[in-house]
Specification:
With 193 residues, the chain is mainly β. It has no helices and twelve strands. It has strands at residues 12-20, 27-30, 37-43, 48-56, 66-69, 76-82, 85-105, 116-125, 135-137, 142-147, 155-163, 172-191. The strands form three sheets. Strands 7, 8, 9, 10, 11 and 12 form a six-stranded antiparallel beta sheet that branches. The chain has a four-stranded antiparallel beta sheet with strand order 3-4-1-6, with no helix packed on it.
């Protein structure tokens, strides 16, 4: 379960979630009793899986928490709340995985129109417990959450960009040390004019 955040005024909430790649997706619940749509995912068998869940026109509150319910999956949640989303928010998605790397691109994607919201989430793991933490992302993405790997959950980092032109983007996550496995997901949301 996350710490409480204020989501009042948002019409799109996006969760970057990580969990054990070979397990079923965790059940998502929140204090708004919202219904969540899962995107496609990227994962490394035996390690972590990165994916998004989102809710358009959510029930919001000033003390909003989010929970992943499934044992033995080492779940991680990063949350971002936005206003200004179109009523059919999902445009496109892409993802990538690798092992034994110090960087990982998400895979190129081109928004179908300008002024779209691009989000990226990466999960990371390393046997020495560092998980390549801290991590960073290029292409002017703004990092909002960085969660270090522990014995209880995967490492995870979330970033977003509002892109004015409908041009291809392929951001790269960089790890401070070699990570045994990494999975990065990328999704584009329509934004109202």
């Amino acid at each position: 379960t996350t710490s409480a955040i204020n989501t009042v005024g948002a019409n799109l909430i996006i969760l970057g979630i990580a969990y054990y790649a070979d397990a079923p997706a965790p059940t998502i619940t929140d204090t708004g009793s919202n219904i969540w749509t899962l995107s496609g995912s990227s994962g490394v068998s035996g390690y972590g899986r990165a994916r998004f869940a989102y809710c358009y026109n959510p029930v919001t509150n000033a003390n909003h928490t989010f929970t992943l319910n499934r044992i033995l999956t080492l779940p991680t949640i990063c949350v971002a709340a936005f206003s200004g989303s179109d009523s059919a928010p999902l445009d496109q998605e892409n993802g990538n995985t690798a092992s034994g790397v110090t960087s990982l691109s998400t895979g190129s994607i081109t928004p179908s129109e300008g002024d779209e919201l691009l989000v990226s989430f990466v999960t990371h793991f390393e046997d020495d417990g560092t998980g390549g933490f801290p991590v960073s992302i290029n292409e002017s993405f703004i990092q909002t959450d960085d969660i270090d790997l522990t014995g209880n959950h995967w490492g995870g980092s979330f970033a977003y960009l509002i892109q004015t032109a409908a041009a291809a983007k392929n951001p790269t996550w960089d790890f401070s040390s070699q990570t045994k496995s990494a999975a990065a997901a990328r999704i584009v949301f329509h934004w109202m004019e």
